[in-house]
Each structure stands twice: as C-alpha cells, then as structure tokens.
Specification:
The structure is a single chain. The protein is mainly alpha-helical. It is built from six helices and no strands.
Length: about 180
C-alpha cells in the first residue's frame, strides 16, 4: 500500500482536526528525513564500534547490533518510500560529516582505540536506539496502517532489546574504563 501526502493529510486530519493536515504531513516528512539522517549516523557508528572491537568480548554483540540497526534503517526507507518522502541529502551528508568529526575526540590516546572510546561509542548507540524506538512508537500512533512489510510494534520491541543489550555492554565498558584492576 502506498501512502501519498494526501493520505497522510487525511490521517493527520482525523487526529489534528481539519485545516491542520497539510502542515502536519509536511512536518511528518521532515520528521522522517531527520530520523533518516540520524539512522545514517547510527549505522556508521555501529559499524565503527563493531569493527574496532572485532576479536574481543564486545565485537560479536556489536556486529549483531550493527546488522540490526542497518535493517532498521532499511525499514525506515520502506516507510519513507511508501509515504513518498525522499531522504534529505543535505541532512544525511551533514549527519555523516558530524559522525566523522566525532571520531576526532581523543579519549585519552592520540592514535589508538581506548576503553573510553568504546564506552562513548556504546553510549552513543544507546541514545540513537532510544530515538529509533521513539520513531517506531510515534509512527504507530499517527499512521492508521503501516506500509506493507513494516511492523512498528516489532521494530519498537527490537529497539528495546537492542537498548538492553547496549546498556549491559555500557556497564561493562564503564567498569573496564574507570575501575582499576589489581
């Protein structure tokens, strides 16, 4: 099923009231584009964290989460396509530049990956996954019917599971970064 701006406007009109629908559908398009830009950052960060931790106790779990985050971005792209919303290239590009600039943070070493790098990356992923969970909940609340092949409840549940796994990794990474071993 394909949703046009008109279909979005009708759905939003039922929620927001007559006369507000077109502006709301435009806002929904911006919202989706913003989340798409954020998902670009999330995928890049997840892949970087997984790659930097390949071969250690974090690598396998981070790689699995990175693959899921990439699948979730593809689900968002299916929603956007069904609603005739194109990704905003400028937003996506700016988000990727910001993610790359974030790599310049020293984290206690100049050239190598530090325990603080791991912690900061995992915490960044926790934040991103929380935003993604909110996205799925919001779309479930405002769209009468999800596009074919998209299950907002399942996506929100998967995000909650990702967040739990990341929180466990974050606690472990914090202990390794800040608690001296004897």
């Amino acid at each position: 099923m394909r949703f046009s701006h008109v279909a979005i406007a009708r759905a939003v009109s039922r929620i927001a009231g007559p006369g507000k629908a077109w502006g709301m559908s435009h806002l929904l398009a911006i919202y989706l584009q913003d989340h798409h830009a954020g998902s670009s950052v999330g995928v890049a960060l997840a892949r970087r964290a997984a790659g930097a931790n390949r071969g250690n106790d974090y690598g396998e779990e981070l790689a699995a989460i990175a693959a899921e985050i990439d699948e979730d971005r593809r689900a968002l792209e299916r929603v956007m396509k069904a609603l005739d919303v194109e990704p905003a290239r400028l937003k996506d590009g700016a988000a990727r530049v910001a993610e790359k600039a974030g790599r310049l943070k020293r984290n206690g070493t100049w050239l190598s990956y530090s325990p603080l790098s791991r912690l900061v990356e995992i915490e960044g992923l926790e934040t991103a996954v929380g935003g993604k969970q909110a996205l799925w909940d919001t779309l479930a609340a405002v769209l009468d019917e999800p596009p074919a092949g998209v299950d907002f409840a399942a996506l929100a549940e998967r995000a909650a599971g990702q967040r739990e796994r990341l929180e466990a990794l974050s606690r472990r990474a914090a202990r390794e970064a800040f608690v001296p071993t004897s």
